[in-house]
Amino acid sequence: MHKLLKRQLKKTGANVDNVDKDFLALVEQAYQDADDDRKLLEHSLEVSSLEMQELYHKLAKQAQEQLKLSEDKYNALTYELRNHYYFYSFNKSFLLTYLSDSVYNITGYSKEELIGTPFTQHLTSHPMNANLNELATKLFSGEKVAPHIINISHKDGSDLFLELSSFGVYDDNKHLTNVSGIARDITQEYIAQQKLHHLSNHDALTGISNRHSLYNQLEYIIVDSKRNKKNFSLLFIDLDGFKAVNDTYGHKTGDILLQQVTQRIQKQIRQSDLLARIGGDEFIVVLTDIDKEFISKISQEILQNLEKTFLIQENTLNISASIGIATYPKDGENTDALLNNADKAMYTIKNSGKNNFIHC
User: Fold this and answer.
1) Each residue's pLDDT tens digit, 197-251
2) Of 168, 192, 216, which residue is a domain's last?
3) How wide is the angle at C-alpha 239 spanned by C-alphas 234 and 243, nearest 5°?
4) Taking a C-beta distance cutoff of 8 angstroms, is the pair 160, 151 a contact?
5) What is the dihedral of CA 169, 171, 176, 182, to 10 degrees?
6) What DSSP line would sit under 61-87, residue for residue?
7) Do 274 and 350 lie in a common domain?
8) Domain range spanning residue 18?
9) Which of 39, 79, 86, 172 has the fewest Cβ atoms within 10 Å of its own Cβ atom?
10) Nearest-angstrom CA–CA distance, 220 and 272
11) Same domain for 236 and 315?
């Protein structure tokens, strides 16, 4: 008989002999079933507990591995960024009060060499640095300032271009105490952009402005001339006999000739004047702030200079030029009109003997 059933019968004082046998068997079976259920439940709980422990250990191990992986990635990222970024702070006297160790990797100066010195100490004379003090003053007045680029000297004397992202730092009383920020080394990126800009705006062979740049600069010149009621003249120069040089001596000789022509024209004009190559042997000169008589004088000097013999790869070459001149606003009030009228004037000279110039 089940021990629990015996206990219950004993508590009640019941005589087993007087209890119905079938009833006892039924109750005993119920106790047996309850035992089986309990054992099954205990076993299930034990198994579940083991599974939970295994799962916990598994998850803990995965979390640890993930944390280690994250730490490795963070360390690798930090190591990589130390060659591109450093942190800084300066006070209201514009003296550096904090620098991260990575400043050495970028500037060649240790933080000990720089802390306590003016943050402008190693700036170059580049125009982009002109408003840096003004920006710092704005930051200390509570204004937000967009990221800006500065040019400084590396300890080895080379140029560095840094993008600064600066912000004001406040104390518990909301008083602005200093300026902090992140300096990012963009030297390679900046130089690449400048090279790309130069290539997109300059003739690859001669180094002077190309057609695209000419149009952009003429737009500014026209706006300025209109605002200040000034005149300027555009000289359309086309070489006479250049095709014969190319056909006879080859394109390499022709390219050298174009380079030497460019140098001769540059010697006849001022640095402030605009010189562009817009086609194979077509050049444009834009002369500002000079009168018609002086323009004629310069045109004549250009022609005389181009008439002189060129010596290229032991070949003696002779060419000349035809020049058509258009003046703003008389001969056109926009770029296309001025170029078209100067072009027509140039062809008038081409068809009437060449090696001369004419005003529209």
Assistant:
1) 888 999 999 999 999 999 999 999 999 999 999 999 999 999 999 999 999 999 9
2) 192
3) 145
4) yes
5) -10
6) HHHHHHHHHHHHHHHHHHHHHTTTEEE
7) yes
8) 3-76
9) 172
10) 14
11) yes
Residues 21 and 138 placed together within one structural domain of the fold: no
Clarify whether residues 57 and 124 are in a common domain. no
Q: How many CB atoms lie within 10 A of CB 159?
A: 13
For residues 135 and 121, the answer to whether their CB atoms sit within 8 Å is no
Residues 6+ apart with CB under 8 A from 316: 309, 310
**The pairing of beta strand 274-277 with beta strand 282-288:** antiparallel
Whether pLDDT at 75 is above 60: no
Contact 100, 89 (CB under 8 A): no
CB 179 within 8 A of CB 242: no
- Indicate whether 344 belongs to any domain: yes
**Is the preceding omega at residue 329 within 30 degrees of 0, hence cis?**
yes
In a domain, 262, yes or no: yes
The structural domain count of the chain equals 3
